[in-house]
Amino acid sequence: xxxxxxxIILAAGKSTRMVTDLPKVLHEVCGRPMLAYVLxxxxxxxxxxxxxxxxxxxxxxxxxxxxxxxVSFVDQAEQKGTGHAVMVCRDALADFEGDVVVIAGxxxxxxxxxxxxxxxxxxxxxxxxxxxxxxxxxxxxxxRIIRDKYGNLExxxxxxxxxxxxxxxxxxxxxxxxxxxxxxxxxxxxxRPDNVKGEYYLTDALHILVGRGHRALAITAVPxxxxxGINSREHLAEVGRVMQNRIxxxxxxxxxxxxxxxxxxxxVRAEIGRDTVIHPFSYIHGRVRIGRRCSVGPFAYLRDGTVxxxxxxxxVFTELKNSTLGSGxxxxxxxxxxxxxxxxxxxxxxxxxxxxxxGQRIHRATVGSDTYVGQGAxxxxxxxxxxxxxxxxxxxxxxxxxxxxxxx
Length: 408
Known about the structure:
CATH superfamily of the largest domain: Spore Coat Polysaccharide Biosynthesis Protein SpsA, Chain A
Largest sheet: 9 strands, mixed
Helix content: 10-25%
Number of helices: 8
CATH topology of the largest domain: Spore Coat Polysaccharide Biosynthesis Protein SpsA, Chain A
Distance between the termini: 69 Å
Number of domains: 2
């Protein structure tokens, strides 16, 4: 980038169509709030100053992202449209000169490379405003991009205002904007809420700049799937499927085998090593780290905080939570391992349970390397099982009871 750049991320609204008490931008997509993806995309494009416009249940949004690098918050006490959301950022950008990217916080499929292209085009062409547009097979619901016979941007027409001919236009505005900051706020000073909703529209600022003869560009740079915003639970599920496909494609490209992608779910925060095989109906949620040459599933459930070293087998209907399994360890069948530190080459027999909760507190268990845990055993935490111990089938192991004994 040749000029300083900031981003305004619109995250103030309440989504009535989602029928939710939670701020829309905090709804999760593959394990993370949708707003987190937008922030990451901006950072990936080199934007370090990130202004998040909050409103509905602002305390929740601020609490979720407080302290993240470069993030500050501006309160839009009344939601009066996209233009108004940018207007309230004037003071926050009083000391800033350069370009401002404006994007919605409910578009988690945005990619850094799209924002980079938007910025590069805007700055290299010295534009007052640049849009990244999408061409959709079905443009229903989107504002249409209007160009003159030479391909120059003339404006955006909302679908409700389109003529029959304009409704046939498939190039749409998915709300990826870049403005010269000074010209943006000069134009916003002229925007009026002269519409049915009585709102200030950001697109009106674009029309004002075009009317004054400033350069306005529109580049077709947004892949159709990236144009998807989230306005309903159905949209949330659709975007989740797209994101899950991206996660799995990335993992498979790095050497992970996913036997049945449509019947597997993997959190975006999970890390999985080369030559590991994920079998069908496995669910990996949270910050999970899986080493190389592991086998997971089918029907395995790995929860936040789980770490598998290399060459670990976690089999059918086995659940792990906040536990570490050392290399060569096997937990093949019908077991629950919670809050445990398991050493290397440990055998966890079918039906083994780690009883980690006493009704008031969660406790941890430690099992030393080369230990054999028989079928149906119950390990009651807190406890430390020494290395090379042998626990018989159906044994209940409690602290101080001496049920775990040295082999031989």
